Amino acid sequence: MTQPRAVKRQARGRQRIADILDAALALFAENGYERTSTNAIAARAGMSPGSLYQFFPNKEAIAEALSTHLVEQMRAAHSSAFDPSRVTDLTLHELIDRMVDPLVTFNVSHPGAKALLANTDMPAGTHGAARPLHEAVVDRVAAVIQARIPTLSAAERDLAAMVSVRIVAAMMPPIVAVEGAERRALTAELKKALYGYIAPLDSAGS
Amino acid sequence: MTQPRAVKRQARGRQRIADILDAALALFAENGYERTSTNAIAARAGMSPGSLYQFFPNKEAIAEALSTHLVEQMRAAHSSAFDPSRVTDLTLHELIDRMVDPLVTFNVSHPGAKALLANTDMPAGTHGAARPLHEAVVDRVAAVIQARIPTLSAAERDLAAMVSVRIVAAMMPPIVAVEGAERRALTAELKKALYGYIAPLDSAGS
DNA sequence: CTCAAATACGAGCGGTCGCCCGTGTTCGTC
DNA sequence: GACGAACACGGGCGACCGCTCGTATTTGAG
Questions:
Q1: How many CB atoms lie within 10 A of CB B78?
Q2: B169 touches chain A (CB under 8 A)
């Protein structure tokens, strides 16, 4: 439906699309979606407005492509972190480390991703592109919890996964905003919160 | 400084200001700040654009007044919840109940308040009006923690307060979005998360 | 009752935005 | 080397935005 009717792209064109996405991500992160004009995106990407519209039918499509792009990168970066095998061999601390650390790394190296995916300053379609990611993350966390604590009911497990993901998301902005020792301290605090929430449910000890 | 040079308002005028604020809150909650036009606010409030600008010098002033208004209501609603007296007499569960329940009530009865105060889709001045609230809440939570767990260092206490507030804020949207038993279940889960985070620090037992 | 102040109106100004289109240029293919 | 498709340009259109202003009406104080 929203399929943009595949146009044969040349290498030049694909590079320009990447340029547009880079410029858009930077500007969205700086000023938000609404405050960023398409002319500004084109200028930052080093092209004319007309050229920009050769690759995207409208502004919203840029946001959607950007969301999809980030979602893919995130998925790729975290596929290993959610491996449900050997989940019972690890201590809960180790398990939390394995899931939190890559998330922090990704969010640090992609500032503005949060600004895009978590912001209400967005057209509806863009949220639609982000929701599958959130659901996917929650599902995978639920799968890990299922492997770890099989005694939980499905409802309890899903609820615990949702709450865990929200806690992580809530701590991400301050973690990304600082560096070094401060970041490590905040990350440690996030892990303490997760541990405190999950440990009472856990049957496999510390 | 931003003091709008007190104009003698008649009762009619004060009512109109309230109408404008109501309309703006509803529209901001529905569509966000940027997507809401001043003409739309005026129309929803049942007046002409010219009349609206009799009471507010510009759009940002509306957002600021709205923020201040909500902040005041929130402060009033929570002043009792943060009473640091008798903090040591309560169990940690009771203490958490006392602080979480009024917050949930307020957020339920003021949907869109979050949309305003937590959104990046806002002029800088509006964030400036919301930050004092957040800081005030964190400070008061820190004061309660101080009374409850005096052994904590200042840095640890402030950190714990910040994390606690973030956890509460993170769970608020889904809590507000549902009703009845579901809402109670989510609220209970929030309290479990808070308890799990704070209990390990607490010296006064369950 | 009078009158200045407060309130109310709404057409429309100046500006910006998303986007189009006419035109010219570069690329891949044969 | 020729040719069509992809790419590139940028002036500017139409719509809408925040906001103004000239004017008309209502209010409360004296």
A1: 18
A2: yes
- CA within 13 Å, CB half, B4: 14
| Residue A51 in this model has a pLDDT that exceeds 80 | yes
Tell me the CA–C1' distance in angstroms for B38 and D23.
22
φ/ψ (deg, to 5) at A120 = -80, -10
State which residue has its Cα closest to the C1' atom of C16: A37
Residue B112 vs residues A204, B45, B65, B163, B172: alpha-carbon distances, Å: 42, 17, 15, 23, 12
Q: Taking 50 as the threshold, does the pLDDT of residue B80 lie above it? A: yes
Are B119 and A115 in contact (CB < 8 Å)? no
Contact, B86 vs B4, CB < 8 A?
no
The answer to whether the CB atoms of B197 and A196 lie below 8 A apart is yes
Q: How far is the CA of A37 from the C1' of C16 (A)?
A: 9
Cβ-based contacts under 8 A for chains A and B: 76
pLDDT digits (tens, 9 = 90+) for B132-168: 778 888 999 999 999 999 999 999 999 999 999 999 9
The distance (Å) linking the CA of A73 with the C1' of C26 is 32
Angle between helices A92-109 and A124-148 (to 10 degrees): 160
Distances (CA, A) of A103 to A190, B14, B33: 12, 50, 30
The pLDDT, as a whole number, for residue A167 is: 98
Joined together, the tokens standing for residue A3 give 């399929």
Residue in A with minimal Cα distance to B164? A193
In the structure encoding, which two tokens stand for residue A117, read together?
A: 């995916």
Spell out the residues 6+ positions from residue A68 whose beta carbon is closer than 8 angstroms to its own. A129
Q: For residue range A149-172, list pLDDT tens digits in order.
A: 999 999 999 999 999 999 999 999
Q: Which residue of A has its CA nearest to B116?
A: A120
